[in-house]
Amino acid sequence: MLRSDDNSDTESIQSDRTSYSGSLVGPPNKRRSVRKSARFNLPPETLKSSSSVAHRADDEAYVEITLDILDDSIAVHSVQTAGGEKGEDPELALLARKTLEKKSSVGSSVFRNTSSRIKQVSQELKRFASFSRRPSGRHFDRTKSAVTHALKGLKFITAKAGGASGWSTVEKRFDDLTASTNGLLHSSLFSECIGMKDSKEFAGELFLALARRHNITGDSIDKTQLKAFWEQISDQGFDSRLQTFFDMVDKNADGRITEEEVSEIISLSAAANNLTSIQKQANEYAALIMEELDPDNAGYIMVQNLEMLLLQAPNQSAGMGDSRILSQMLSQKLKPTQENNPLRRWYQKTKYFVMDNWQRLWVMMLWLGILAGLFGWKFVEYRHKSAFQVMGYCVCTAKGAAETLKFNMAIILLPVCRNTITWLRNKTKLGLAVPFDDNLNFHKVIAVAIAIGVALHGGAHLTCDFPRLLHATEEEYKPMEPYFGKEQPPNYWWFLKGVEGVTGIIMVVLMAIAFTLATPWFRRNKLNLPVTLKKLTGFNAFWYSHHLFVIVYTLLIVHGIYLYLTKEWYKKTTWMYIAVPVALYACERLIRACRSTIKPVKILKVAVYPGNVLTLHMTKPQGFKYRSGQYMFVNCSAVSPFEWHPFSITSAPGDDYLSVHIRTLGDWTRQLKTVFSEVCQPPTGGKSGLLRADCGGEDGPNFPKILIDGPYGAPAQDYKKYEVVLLVGLGIGATPMISIVKDIITNIKAKEEDKDNENDIEIRVESTPDDHDNGNNRKKKNKKAFTTKRAYYYWVTREQGSFEWFKGIMNEVAEMDEKNVIELHNYCTSVFEEGDARSALITMLQSLHHAKNGVDVVSGTRVKSHFAKPNWRQVFKKIAIQHPHSRVGVFYCGAPALTKDLQQLAWDFSHKTTTKFDFHKENF
Predict the structure, then answer these.
(1) What's the pTM value of the predicted model, to 2 decimals?
(2) DSSP state of 825
(3) Residue 793 φ/ψ, nearest 5 degrees
(4) Residue 160 DSSP symbol
(5) In the chain, what is the straight-line distance between the N-terminal and C-terminal CA atoms, in Å?
(6) Residues near 366 by Cβ (< 8 Å), separated by ≥ 6?
(7) What backbone torsions phi and psi does residue 200 show, to the nearest 5 degrees?
(8) Which of 52, 53, 833, 846 is least surrounded by Cβ atoms within 10 Å, i.e. has the fewest?
C-alpha cells in the first residue's frame, strides 16, 4: 500500500503489503514532483524452484517499482526486488517504461487511471519477475514479454522469404548451380543460392558457422545439408538466430568470443554494409563492446552477454513517441476507399485535382486561350483573302500557326528571366496566384508548343501552299502577282533559295539541335552512345546549343520582314512581339555580367569530401542578401570563362560567409574539382575532408578566381510560410535543406531574444516615439515573416562518407536546438534494414557508442542514423497525427525518382486527414 509522508519525497511501504487503489498524489491543485514506490505480490507459481532462490525470505515474492511523478506525467525510475537488490532487470524496466511512460493531455485523467495502469503493469511484471533471479546460464523467456517487438532483429532470412515457399526457390537455385557438380554446392556459391548475392563475404562466414554447428568439415554440401542450413537460418525464433550469430563470431567453437573475434565480425558487418570508416576502426569498437560486456576483464564474452547487449539496444526507429500517437497510427490505415458510383468518383478526383492545381490551371487556360484567339484571328483573316482561293485552308493554318509562334517565341524568355521572377516572388503578392516554382516546366511546355507551331507552319507551306502555287493556272495565279511577282515560280527551289526559305530552314535546324540536346536523354547522358558522340551530349552541349537562339531570334526578325503575303510594314508584327522580352532578357544577362565583376568574392576555404563533393567557402559581397533555399550561379574562368552553373547556397543568411557544396556529376564540375584539388593538401589537426585548403593570409594558396551571380528564388525559400515543415534531401539535394535548418534555429533564437528584450526596448529613454513605432513595426514584420515552429529533416544518402559534407553543421544544429524544434533523421541506404543480421552488430554498436559518447558511429555526428530507406507513409502519418488541422510545407530536393511518391503521399494525406500537405520540389 502506498502512503504519503509529508516530510519526504519518497513513499514508505506498509507492512501488510495490501494492494492500493486510488490517486497517487492527491487533489490536482496540490500536485508536486514526487517519487512513489509500490510493491506487487507475485503468485507462488511464478517462483521457480532453484537453489539460488529457495532460501529467500517472503520479500522475494515482491517487486518494487519507483515512479517519478511530475504534474500530469508518470515515468518509471527503477524496478527491483523488494529486498532492495541493485542491478535492475533491463527487460523488466523496459517493459514497465513502455507501459507507463505516457503523457495525458488532460491532467486529471492521470489520477483517475493510475490505479488501473499499475494493476496492468503488475500483471505483466508477475510473469517476468523470475527473470531478475534467473541462473546465469538461463535464457530469457520472451514469449509473453512486451519487449518481443524490440527483439525481432537478427534476421538472416525474412519471414516472407523463409518457409516452404522460400525453400522451393532455394531448391531451384541449388539444382541450377549444381547441375555440373553432381549435386554438391560449393561454399563460394552459397551466397547466390540463399539469396545473399550482394553479401558474399558475410554469407561465406555464415556457411562456415553452420558447417561447424552441423559438424561438416568439407567446403561443399548436398541438398539435405542445405535444407538443414536453410531451416536454421529461416527459423524465426530469436534464440535460434542468436545462436547462429554467436556461432559466426565464435570461429573456434569454444563457446567464448574474444576481442579479436568481435573485431573480425565488426569488420565483416561493416564491409557488407559499405561502412568503410567503421571497418577501419573495428579494433577500437571491439574494445568498446568488450568494455561494456566484459567488465571483469575475463578476456571473453558468452552468448548471454551478447543477448544482454541486444536488450539494452532496442530498435529506436519504432519509438514514434507517445503511446496515444502510436495507437492512433496503428488504427489509421489510411487506405483509399473506392467509390462505387463512377460519376461521384470522377467528381471527387476532379475536385481534388482542381484544388491542388488551380494556380497552374488558370495560367494554362489563359495561355491556351490566347493561343486559340491568335490562331483563330489569323485563320479567319486569311479565309477572306485572295490567297485563300489558290492555297485554301493550308494558308489559313500556316498563318494561324505563325501568329502563335510569334507569341510563344516572345514569352518563352520570361520564365528564364530569373532576376525578374525573384523580385516578383520576394516583393509582390503575385506568388499567391502565380506558380513561380513551375517556371522551367512552363518554359518546356512553351517549347513543345513552338515545335508544334513550326511543324504546322512549315508543313503547311512546304506540303500544300507551295505545290498549289506551282500548279495553279494563269487565271488562278493572277491574284498572287502582287506577292510573288508577275512570273509564276517555276519550281520548288524558287521558294527555298529566297530569304524567307533560307532563314526558315536555318531556324528549324538550329531549333532542332537545341531541342534535341535539351532532352533528358542527351542532357543527362542517358543514351549509350559511342565515345566520339558522347562529347556531343551532357550539360555542356545543352548549355552551348541553347545559345544558338541568339542566331534564331536574329533570323526570326529577318524572316518576319521578308514575308510573302504581307507588304505593309505595320502588319509585320514579329519584332513587336519579341522586342520587350528580348530586351528584358538582355538586361538580365547584362546585370549578371556587371554584378559578378562589381562584387567579387574571395575564397576562404576549400574542402574535398568523399562522394566527389567539393565545398567552397567564400566572402559574402556587401549587399548580398538571400534567403535559405535560394541558389546562385558560379563561374570559374580557369574551367570556362563563359559557363555559369547554379548551386544551392548551404550557408544561412545569418552567416558572415557564403558556401556551396558541389557534387561531381559532369564535365564542368569534374574540372572544377580538379583545379581546386591542385591547391589542396590532406587535412591536419583532425579536420574533416579528404583534401583541404584554408586562406592563411598572403602565404596562403593561390585559389582559382570565382565569380557569383544571384541570389535567385527557389521553391524551398517559401518554408517560412508554414508552421510545420517537412524537409527531404536526397544525396546532394540536402544542400538547400541544411541552410533552412540553420536558419530556423537562428530565427527562433532571435525571436526569443526579442521577446526577452521587449520590455527593455519599451523603456528606452533615448528613442523617440517615431523610432519606437518603427522598431515595433519592424519587429511585427519579422515575426509575421517567420512562422515556423516545428521542422522534420530527412536526409537520405547512399554512402557513409556523405555525412562528412555537413558534419559540422549537423553538430552545430543539434547543439543549438535546445527546445528540440527540429527532428533530424539521417538515413544511410547502403546499410541493410534494421533487423537484418548483416546490420545487427552495427545497430548494437551504434546504440552503445551513442549512449557512451553521444556520437553516431555511422554519420560521425550527434544525430543518430537510421538504416535502409525511410517508410515515407509512416513519416507522413506521424506528422498528420501530431499536427491535426495544420498546413505542412513539404520541400523535396533531389533526383526525380522520389518526387512522384512524395507528391502522391502529400495528396493522399491532404484528402484523407485534417492535415494539409503542400508539396514543393526541386529536381536536378
Answers:
(1) 0.68
(2) E
(3) -115, 125
(4) T
(5) 66
(6) none
(7) -65, -40
(8) 52
pLDDT at 517 over 80: yes
Q: What's the CA gap between 298 and 309, in Å, rounded?
A: 17
Residue of 860, 793, 791 lying closest to 819 (CA atoms): 791
Q: Tell me how far apart the alpha carbons of residues 784 and 778 are, in angstroms, rounded to a whole number.
A: 10
Long-range contacts, 467-475 (Cβ 8 Å, 24+)? 467/492, 468/390, 468/391, 468/392, 468/394, 469/390, 469/391, 472/390
The whole-number pLDDT of residue 446 equals: 95
Cell 485552308 sits at which residue?
393
Q: Which of helix, strand or coil describes residue 768?
A: coil
What are the strands, taking DSSP E only, across 112-249?
185-186, 220-221
What mean pLDDT, rounded, does the chain reach? 74
In one letter, which amino acid is 74? I
Percent of the chain with pLDDT over 90: 11
Nearest of 38, 92, 83 to residue 65 by alpha carbon: 38
Residues 6+ apart with CB under 8 A from 726: 791, 792, 794, 875, 876, 879, 888, 889, 890, 891, 917
Taken as a whole, the chain contains a residue count of: 924
In single-letter form, the type of residue at position 8 comes to: S
Per-residue pLDDT, 153: 54
Are 848 and 813 within 8 A, CB to CB?
A: no
Please answer whether residues 560 and 554 qualify as being in contact, where contact means their C-beta atoms are separated by less than 8 angstroms: no
- Specify burial of residue 460 (Cβ count, 10 A radius: 0-12, 13-18, 19+): buried
For residues 614 and 674, what is the distance between their CA atoms, to the nearest angstrom?
Answer: 10
User: What pLDDT is stored for residue 53 in this prediction?
Assistant: 40
DSSP state of 220: E
pLDDT band at 73 (very low <50, low <70, confident <90, very high): very low
Which residues are within 8 A (CB) of 478 and not within 5 positions of it... i.e. 6 or more apart?
none
pLDDT band at residue 431 under the 50/70/90 scheme: confident
Higher pLDDT, 704 or 312: 704
Mean of pLDDT values over 622-634: 87
pLDDT tens digits, one per residue of 707-760: 888 888 888 888 888 889 999 988 888 888 888 888 888 877 777 776 666 655
C-alpha distances (whole Å) from 48 to each of 52, 62, 132, 216 are: 10, 14, 12, 39
Alpha-carbon separation of residue 166 from 68, 169, 194, 204, 836 (angstroms): 49, 5, 9, 20, 17
Across the range 491-508, mean pLDDT stands at: 86
Under 8 Å between Cβ of 578 and 557: yes
What is the Cα–Cα distance from 920 to 924, expressed in whole angstroms? 14
Q: What mean pLDDT is predicted for residues 858-869?
A: 79
* 3-class SS of residue 173: helix
Of residues 593, 596, 607, the one with CA closest to residue 659:
607
Inform me whether the pLDDT recorded for 580 exceeds 90.
yes
DSSP string, 417-445: -HHHHHHHHHHSSGGGTS-GGGHHHHHHH
Q: Cell triple for residue 230?
A: 536453410
| CA 63 to chain CA mean position, Å | 46
**Is 74's pLDDT higher than 80?**
no
Asked if residue 789 lies in contact with residue 766, where contact means CB atoms within 8 angstroms, the answer is: no
